[in-house]
C-alpha cells in the first residue's frame, strides 16, 4: 500500500520528469542544483500525519506544542517559500501543490488538530492567489476525502473508529492523477483548492458551496457517531473530577 505522493511521482516519472524526494532539512535546492544545475519546476508538499497518538489533541501527550502542526502546517508553508525563492533565483515559472484535505473544509470533533492543520493549508493557498500573476508561481492545494493509504492502514483502529468502507474511498492513484492535472492544466489557476472524493472532483470556491454527499457530511448514523467519539468520551471521562 503506497501513499498519495508516491502515486503522483509514478505519474510524473512516466512523463519523464526528473524527481527529487527530500526532507526540508536536506537542502533540497542545493542538491537539485548540484545534480542538474537547475531548481525544480514543481514542488509537492506531501508529508502529513493524521493526529497520531503521539500528537493528538484528545490524547494530549505533548507539553507545549503540537508536532502535527509542525508537520502538516509549517512544512508545506516553508516548502512554498523555499520554492518561490528558488524559482525567482533562476527567473523561472513553477508550481507548488500542497496535499490538504477535505478536513480543511469542515470540522471534526474526533480530530480537531488535523482539521485545524488542514484549514491552515486552505487559508494559506487562498492567500497565494496573486503569486501566479505577480511572480509566475502557481500555488495550489488538492483536498482528498478518504484515500486508503498507510495513513489509515498503519492505524487500523482508526479505520474502525471512522467507519471507513471502500465505497467512500478514492485510490491514491486517482489523487496522484488529479494532482498532475492540477499542476499542468492552465484552467486551474494559482490559489485553486481542488476537492477529490468518491463523488467527483471540483474546485472549492472561497465562499458558499454545499457539501459533497459523503457519509461524513450527510446524515450520519448514531452508531457511527458513537463509535467515532468513543475514545474521546472514554478519555475525558477519566479527566472529569480528576483533580490535578
Ligand atoms: N489518506 C487519506 O485519507 C488522506 C485524505 C486527505 C488528505 N490526506 C493527506 O495526504 C497527505 C499524504 O498522506 P497519505 O494518505 O499519502 O499517507 P502516507 O502515510 O502514505 O503519507 C504520508 C507521508 O508523510 C511522511 N511523513 C510524516 N511525517 C513526516 C516528517 N516529520 N518528515 C518527513 N516525512 C514525514 C510519512 O513518512 C509518509 O511517507 C497527508 O498530508 C495527508 O494528510 C490523506
Task: Please summarize what this structure is.
By secondary structure, the protein is an alpha/beta fold.
Characterise the protein shown here:
The strands form two sheets. This protein has a five-stranded mixed sheet with strand order 1-2-3-6-7, with helices on both faces. It contains nine helices and seven strands; from the N terminus they run ααβαβααββααβαββα. The longest helix is centred in the N-terminal third of the chain and has 23 residues, at 67-89. The protein has a single domain (4-239), classed as NAD(P)-binding Rossmann-like Domain (Rossmann fold). The chain is α/β, with parallel strands linked by helices and 244 residues long. Residues 3-5, 23, 46-50, 71, 99, 101, 144, 146-147, 149-152 line the site of nicotinamide-adenine-dinucleotide.
Amino acid at each position: 500500500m503506497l501513499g498519495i505522493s508516491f502515486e503522483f511521482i509514478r505519474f510524473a516519472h512516466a512523463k519523464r520528469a526528473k524527481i527529487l524526494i527530500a526532507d526540508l532539512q536536506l537542502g533540497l535546492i542545493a542538491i537539485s542544483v548540484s545534480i542538474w544545475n537547475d531548481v525544480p519546476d514543481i514542488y509537492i508538499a506531501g508529508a502529513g500525519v493524521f493526529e497520531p497518538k503521539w500528537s493528538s489533541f484528545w490524547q494530549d501527550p505533548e507539553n507545549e506544542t503540537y508536532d502535527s502542526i509542525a508537520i502538516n502546517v509549517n512544512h508545506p508553508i516553508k516548502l512554498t517559500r523555499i520554492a518561490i525563492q528558488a524559482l525567482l533565483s533562476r527567473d523561472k515559472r513553477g508550481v507548488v501543490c500542497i496535499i490538504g484535505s477535505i478536513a480543511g473544509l469542515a470540522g471534526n470533533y474526533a480530530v480537531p488538530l488535523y482539521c485545524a492543520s488542514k484549514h491552515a493549508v486552505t487559508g494559506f493557498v487562498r492567500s497565494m492567489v496573486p503569486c501566479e500573476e505577480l511572480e509566475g508561481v502557481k500555488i495550489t492545494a488538492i483536498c482528498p476525502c478518504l484515500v486508503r493509504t498507510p495513513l489509515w492502514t498503519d492505524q487500523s483502529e482508526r479505520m474502525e473508529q471512522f467507519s471507513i468502507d471502500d465505497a467512500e474511498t478514492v485510490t491514491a492513484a486517482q489523487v496522484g492523477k488529479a494532482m498532475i492535472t492540477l499542476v499542468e492544466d492552465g484552467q486551474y489557476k494559482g490559489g485553486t483548492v481542488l476537492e477529490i472524493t468518491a463523488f467527483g472532483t471540483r474546485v472549492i470556491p472561497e465562499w458558499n458551496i454545499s457539501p459533497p454527499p459523503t457519509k461524513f457530511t450527510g446524515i450520519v448514523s448514531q452508531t457511527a457517531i458513537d463509535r467515532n467519539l468513543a475514545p474521546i468520551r472514554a478519555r475525558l471521562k477519566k479527566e472529569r473530577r480528576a483533580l490535578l
